[in-house]
Amino acid sequence: MLARLGNIYRLGIKELRSLRSDPVMVFLLVWAFTFMVYQVAENAKMEVDNASIAILDEDHSELSRRISAAFLPPYFKPAVEISGEQIDRVLDTGEFIFVVDFPPKFEADILSGTLPEVQVNVDATAMAIAGNGATYIQSIMTQEVLKFLDERNATVTLPLDLVIRAKFNPNLNSTWFMAVMQIINNVTLLAMILTGAALIREREHGTIEHLLVTPVTSVEIMISKVWANGLIIVIAATISLFFVVQGMLQVPIMGSKTLFLAGAVVYLFSVTSFGILLATVAGSMPQFGLLVILTYIIMNLLSGGTTPLESMPEWLQFIMQVSPSTHYVGFSQSVLFRGAGLGIVWPQLLAMIAIGGAFFTVALWRFRKALAESGK
């Protein structure tokens, strides 16, 4: 047993030295967990930010002008007044995302108690802000109308007083969400790339044959690749979490960072094993790259990190339970955003261990089969 552990340790050190001598991989690691996390979190925003808006004012009243002036940065760019003939053109060309049309006698109808209709045209191809922006416009218009009526001692009764309390992210700041999710996405991508590329690189360079004439087994080779590459990614994710997410982006972490990193170790066992499995399927590095792209896109988009898992069809939710990324996203969001403890997230940990064991077993079987077919 001690001899096997020694072999696994020395093979892992060999993996670390091999990675250190690969400047492209080193650059990819540094870039992915620093610049990429920061830029995506800061610039890939989901809330309304500097949205372009145009006004068709057919009333030219004090109230319509007040509402137009209320569309202010940072949510909206200064409103631009246009004519009715320009609406279709500015929407077709994408010059404006929102066009608000105030009807004639808008202010007079408000004062008389009549409920006028204001048309809001939205370019829904800008999906990131179309829905939220329409809600913002509605809220701004409601506030300005209430202020206008209050100044004139007019009475107005709202049918519902809605009070919204946002937990875990009270300002609805997408930077908090995007920063953490980018670390999770990078852990998935880099874990598959590093382990799979390491195996294919040894196969293409012929060093795998050199290893097999030494007193090591295929199990020891696989475990060494898992722990060495997993260690590198855990260190990179830790540095990114502390210095980029908490330090530069000022994102508050509600839960235990130690528990999050422990879950990352479990997840890395699953995803590195999956990376080795892909490497046993691929015949060359280009084929492996294509496989990684296809599987990563599915794991990223359907894991619940980009869109809620509950919004997907039930059959797809069931299928995605076999993906370790689904459980890791749920685990990470519970720990980092909601402050959940081990008593809440242990089912996700067990699921990742089980899936990782299955991936490792299948990858080991295919690895041994490939060696036997080559006569080694």
Keywords:
376 residues; mainly alpha; abc type-2 transporter like fold; 2 domains; four-stranded mixed beta sheet; 15 helices; 4 strands; 66% helix
Notes on the structure:
This protein is mostly helical and 376 residues long. The chain has 2 domains: 2-44 and 173-373, no CATH class; 53-151, abc type-2 transporter like domain (abc type-2 transporter like fold). Helices cover 66% and strands 4% of the residues. It has helices spanning 2-20, 23-33, 35-43, 62-69, 87-92, 106-111, 127-151, 174-205, 207-212, 218-248, 257-281, 285-301, 314-319, 324-337, 342-373; strands at residues 53-57, 80-81, 98-102, 119-122. It has a 4-stranded mixed β-sheet, covered by helices on one side. Helix 4 links the parallel strand 1 and strand 2. Helix 2 packs parallel to helix 3. The protein is elongated.
Q: What number of structural domains do the residues give? A: 2
Average residue pLDDT = 85
Beta-strand content estimate: under 5%
User: What's the end-to-end separation, in Å?
Assistant: 24 Å
The percent of residues in helical segments reads 55-70%
Low-pLDDT segments = none
Order of helices and strands: HHHEHEHEHEHHHHHHHHH
Question: Number of helical runs?
Answer: 15
Cα shape: elongated
- Secondary structure class reads mainly alpha
Outline the biggest β-sheet: 4 strands, mixed
Number of strands: 4
Specify Rg, calculated over alpha carbons.
Answer: 28 Å
Spatial arrangement of strands, main beta sheet: 2-1-3-4
